[in-house]
Structures
1.
Amino acid sequence: MENEGARPAPRAVRLDHRQVRVLAHPLRMRLLGALRVKGPSTATRLAELLGTNTGATSYHLRQLAEVGLVAEDPDRGTGRQRFWRSAHDVTNWEPTDFDDDPDARAAIEWIQSDQVRHLAEHAEQWFATQHEWSPAWRDAFGMGDIFMAIPPARLEALKAELWQLLDRYRNEADPAEPGAEQVQIYLAAYPLLKEFR
């Protein structure tokens, strides 16, 4: 018997070669992210939110729709006003998924680099504004690191377990809970720098 209070599992997509090539664009990444965080919206509202023009936003939404990453929301909008929504809540891939396609491999490398750039910008914004947050939030936010020696299979298992934990917390989250804020959590694992090996 299903738990009546349980939220539906997040809709996930494993990127294919076409999707990754289309997604590897700064505005398209931002559009998809905005639809996932803010929910369905029009090209005009998205253009205002992202500081671009409606023509560019409309064009890039159509490109994302052609590969199934966004879709029109038929329950919203009237006449010429079209609402768009993310077709998925989560995007998955493994870098080796694209080893046989140099263009897709270059696209996924760009996407990964863009994620790192976004993390750096995000951290800089936090450092510039952290004094505006309560002590509880300043202590809760932040980052850390840990060093370990681990084979690839165990690292994959560790990542899978951490994602399960993050998914559980996300599914249990209640945006109406007093004091709740939207947060973004990054998960990264990289080889130790050569000078420390």
Note: Residues 12-196 form a domain with the Arc Repressor Mutant, subunit A fold (CATH 1.10.10.10).
2.
Amino acid sequence: MDRGWLLCEPNVSEGRDTGRMDRFAAAVAATAGVELVHRSADPDHHRMVLAYLGPAGAVVEASIALASEVYEALDLRRHRGAHPRIGALDVVPFVRGPGCPETTALDASHAFGQWSASQGVPVFFYERSAASPLRASLPRIRAGQFEGLREKLALPEWRPDLGPPAPHPSAGAVVTGVRAPLVRFNVNLDTRDPGPARRIAATIRASGGGLPHVRALGISLERRRLTQVSVNLTRYAITSLSTVHDRIAAGANAEGVALAGSEFIGPVPASALRGLDPRRLDADLDPDQILEFSSTGTGASE
């Protein structure tokens, strides 16, 4: 199970309590053989993203250590944030690095799912780990969010892949699977009015007839007195970062709103940046965020 390296990029439903977030990151960093390469959080999204890599077995151990801390500390019944979620540990994606066979990554997602189910948390396998096309899409699994999860799990077509047929009272459910690398890219707008961000997101996302392989949300950042077009770019070889940024900039100009900087969340595939100067996007990008990945086919969304 330990050929090549595997990346895990879990989303945790906590973006405000620094002590808790330090505790979660420490659980990962303490796992032998695992390198924590990225950590970010936003209080308006109320979400934390971690990224760590290593041999597959060690990455599974780190994911279990993280989940143990999260399930003990968080209660979704008290959670409200701008980012969609169904779980305290919402999604645990595994991404193949060079030298890691897909079977190894699939085994890792299944091992983590089996452990989560043993803790009484319903499990959905998505993307390349999905048992059916209905389960492949993360937005489809998240529809209704934690608040609608009990009713959703009662439907025969949404019975969990593993675990109980009802949400864990505080942890909800978890989604895990193997997906291709993606680019998470946010562009901030210098306005507190959420209307422009929501309208721009609606015009660029693929589901609305916009740019292929783009998912986008318009989000309020009340603490920063800004709004944001939050983008997942799932096939950056077809729709480039430059294209996405230019469309958002044009939409902002049409709305009479200035841009207020951009940000990358999590590791960024090196191939998505070739020929592009990140400074053109007015975005901070740590060199440690740039990684080379194996080719894994279609993209995914967080």
Note: The chain has a mean pLDDT of 93.
3.
Amino acid sequence: MSKTLTLRSAGFSRRIDLATLWRLLLALLVTALVMLGALSLGKLKLSPLTVLELLWHGGDERLLFIVEQLRLPRLLLAALVGAALAVSGLILQSIIIRNPLASPDLLGITSGASAAAVLYLSFFSLLLGPQFLPLAAMLGAGLAALAIYLLAWKQGTSPLRLVLIGVGVSALLAAVTTFVLVFSPLTTTLSAYVWLTGSVYGASWPEPRALGGWLLAILPLLVWLARQVRVQQLDDALAQGIGVRVQWLRAGLLLVSVALAGAAVAWGGAIAFVGLIAPHIAKRLVAPGFAGQALMAALVGANLVMLADLIGRTLFLPLDLPAGIFVAVLGTPFFLYLLINQRH
């Protein structure tokens, strides 16, 4: 039996599994080392001690510019994108869809964001500028999720109907995206393909700040709903029997999942498989419990995208390849492995 630590105060009680706590601290240490390595490596290689010295005390202006203005915002954006996609996938897999193959890609959320973003890049970016691209992507993700939820509604929604409708809507939106690209100018088609692959190339400080602010705004709703997650994992009839408004709770959790995935795709492009891989790794590393698994999934997702971006910008110099390519290289065989396991 695992040891636990119990925290109590007026109106608050929380039991923490010590094994989960130590594994989270270890994952946090690994994340810090990955970030330090990513800041050190590039066309110009720096030692980790030099990077720490530059961040703490400053120094050579050229080196400080490379670390603080070129590498650090890109790294933070990759970490935030990966964390948001991972938690979104965990919510879908464990709570709403209850299917280990579920992810924002499967449910059509990513496809909705992609279709809206490509439409914006092709026909509106020259008129309105690139600054409204994240808004268009989030709006597309929200509309796709709303359409799926309404189409799946029949005296309530069920996980199976959400999956089937989500797959159909995702395929339709992928066709719309291809149709728009066919009639787009060549220059916007090239930039759209980079965005569809998923990339944090050229990130500056406004992007991670904007995404971080959006995620902080979502966090209170996620924390509030997380208290009822265990009940949502029960059978619908049983949960309703103990007084839980299952459909409202499912709608709220779906809203949080869509907001996380839509924001991540809006600023990082359509990076696939993070929302599929990270929750599975998290569930193998920590004991059952939404809070611990969500924190671990966020750290795993952040590391996945940071490492993919590091590989893309260092191993193929002078080329800078999109991070989504390398996540897909890992994600495709992982998906096939899950598919084969589910067959049995």
Note: Residues 73 and 204 are 5 Å apart (CA to CA).
